[in-house]
Design goal:
This protein has 68 residues and is an all-alpha fold. The protein contains two helices and no strands. The protein has one domain. 90% of the residues lie in helices and 0% in strands. It starts with a helix and ends with a helix.
């Protein structure tokens, strides 16, 4: 194999491999960010549920959770 054949192989195969690796890295980064967002949303929802339950208890309102 001469230098031009090696250069041709790298240019034809190297870019798709590099693009796939970059896409894989980007998707992993997005997945981690999404996981953190979902965890924060879950925590906020749980906090809001607790506050709503406390308000219902103070107001004497019966909720569906009380009936279960």
């Amino acid at each position: 194999m001469d230098a031009s054949a090696i250069t041709q192989i790298i240019s034809s195969v190297g870019f798709p491999i590099a693009a796939c690796l970059i896409c894989f890295w980007y998707v992993n980064k997005l997945t981690e960010a999404h996981k953190e967002e979902v965890n924060r949303l879950t925590e906020a929802l749980n906090n809001n549920t607790l506050v709503m339950q406390k308000l219902c208890d103070k107001l004497g309102v019966q909720t569906d959770a009380d009936n279960l």
